[in-house]
Amino acid sequence: MPRTPDQDAPFHPLGTPPGTPPAPAQEATIPSPQEPDTNRRPAGGRAPVVVAGGGIAGTAVAFALQPHGPVLLVDDGEFPGLGETRTAVGVLKAVAGHPLLDGWARTTWDFALAQHHHPRSPIRLTFAALNGRPDRAAFLDHLLFLDAMLLLARRSGLQLLTRARVVEPVLRGGRVVGVRVQRPGGPCEAIPAAALVLAPGPRPDSLAMDGLPGGFASRFVRVKDVVIPFRLPEGSRAEPAVYTRRSLIWQFVLGPEPRALLAAARLEGDWAPPSFDQLVALVDDLVTRFDLPGEAELDRTRTLIDLRGPGGLPFAGPVAPLGGAEGLFVLAGLGLEGLSLALGAARQVAAAVTAYTGLAPSPMR
């Protein structure tokens, strides 16, 4: 049976202790000056930490930071999670196969379990074996997972600015003091910021902005995951499972639907969807290597784009030690493991940000 969360640990689905009214969630407004207006700050006089990017990684960072002070999440979509996160495969792993990443995966897994077991949470996990180990993976609605973190953060005061993009940090003396934000058809406008966290997803242009070390973007490799659905033969029965073959390019998912299998191939180089001939070659390679039965449903193939971090690992932390600006942080390169690693990586970034800003946890409002 899956491990249940510690019943003695407090867990509040709305992010606040019982009986505490939540703070009203408000849409952020943009001041007009070209330099940050330091008089326009949240109650308490603190400039917010600005998180640029509302995918699974950026939302997780905002969620992890919110108990420590004011946070502003900026996303260029109509709502967080409508970029590459929307098309992701909703697979969660309890381990990721690397000592650092395993800790991140455990953090995310524990949060998902707490949501799964709480009667007021809409998140429900379908447990699966991971490389033959029972209940070490799970299928879930990944957008509900993102929404859960967003709701918890909004209920404790997170500000959200949508249909806007952080185009550059405002630097003073090599330190972040604000950000410039642009909405479609409008001028760049400035917002004060105690720090800036970039969680760009697959957008190398965001990793080449002012304040980042020279050549920083070149540390990341463009990758695409080609997900090919297979329909297994009539009468096939297989329990939900996830398999990884780290010596090869393939990962396999036996989904909760009967007779459904997903084969994901990781390719580097560009983000162009494979041609029909390339898809046929991938399927031939897959069937030849693994003697896979069933029929590939090429019309349902998806191409998911992402970045691979330096040395195959994500980058999660400050860029100042590499020669970048003080107060500028990056979380990028989570790749195909983004859902599994998001919250653990976000908490590492949040710890670095709070150490830099000197913020102490404030009571949930």
Provide structural commentary:
The protein has 365 residues and is an alpha/beta fold. It has two domains: 49-215 and 310-357, FAD/NAD(P)-binding domain (3-Layer(bba) Sandwich); 221-307, 2-Layer Sandwich (Alpha-Beta Plaits). The chain has five helices and 18 strands. The strands form three sheets. Strands 3, 4, 5, 11, 12, 13, 14, 15 and 16 form a nine-stranded mixed beta sheet that branches. A six-stranded mixed beta sheet has the order 6-2-1-10-18-17, with helices on one face. α1 (56-65) runs parallel beside α3 (142-155), α1 packs parallel to α5 (338-357) and α2 crosses α5. The longest helix is centred in the last third of the chain and has 20 residues, at 338-357. The relative contact order is 0.19. Mean pLDDT is 80; it is low at 1-34, 36-43 and 360-365.
Give me the CATH superfamily of the largest domain: FAD/NAD(P)-binding domain
CATH fold call of the largest domain:
FAD/NAD(P)-binding domain
Structural class by secondary-structure content: alpha/beta
Order of helices and strands: EHEEHEEHEEEEEEEEEHEEEEH
What is the architecture of the largest domain at the second tier of CATH?
3-Layer(bba) Sandwich
Shape: globular
SS summary, helix count: 5
Task: Give the domain tally.
Answer: 2
Characterize the largest beta sheet: strand count, sense, and whether it forms a barrel.
9 strands, mixed
Helix proportion range:
10-25%
Low-confidence stretches: 1-34, 36-43, 360-365
Strand content: 25-35%
The Cα radius of gyration reads 21 Å
Per CATH, the class of the largest domain reads Alpha Beta
Quote the distance from N terminus to C terminus: 36 Å
What average pLDDT do the residues reach? 80
Number of strands: 18
